[in-house]
Design brief:
The chain is built from 6 helices and 6 strands. Helix content is about 15%, strand content about 10%. The longest helix has 10 residues. The chain has a 4-stranded mixed sheet. The chain has a single domain, classed as paralog of FGE (formylglycine-generating enzyme), CATH 3.90.1580.10. By secondary structure, it is an alpha+beta fold.
Amino acid sequence: MGTRAGVSGLAHGEGVESPQRKIWLDAYDIDLYEVSLGEYLAWVLNKPRALPPDLAQAERLHEISEYTGIITGPEAPSANRLAQWPAFGVTWHEAEAFCRAKGRRLPTEAEWEKAARGPSGSTFPWGKASPNARRAVYGRTYATAIPQVDVIDSFPNGRSRYGLFHMAGNVAEWVSDWADPAAYRTMPERNPRGPAAGQQKVVRGGSWQSQREMLRAASRYAMPPGRRDATTGFRCARSRR
């Protein structure tokens, strides 16, 4: 877990990703896909279907009011395609509540990184090769008001060793841990879960706006848990019993 200090080109992560540590985790399950916008909206609207037929219902939602125009405006993709986009503009609190309601939880930072790097600690989810347009959604800008994401089951060439989609790019993902720049120096060797409190939550994976260095599986940054951002979504995990 983490990156060796002094690695060339690591200006952003120097210090917060080191020292590199060997960590042991109990067995767990983690979603293959980012939570979709359709599934998330269905939950907020208390609908049984994961793919609401008319996403214009989102006009009723206070939770994503900042983005109502994006998903209901004339430039928006079809409702079926939008439903398969990753959820975005979701706060950490809402992401955690969604996962809990589904009998799951947000993954810990260590669990997320293990799922992204595989058993050999790959630099990127797919291995050592540099990111390209066939492996990840990244380096994009707003052409319109619409986030430049892709559907959750796209880009199979970018899957992780364990088969997870979009662990690099598309939307960055909330994890359960509070952020601590010194975490890698103090975390326990087994099942680390971050500090007990803090002001920001860790975000992993890079997004559709990120540059290549942020797509590394070890890259980490943080945001206030109440922040909404068109670059940030989530996936869920659960402990094995």
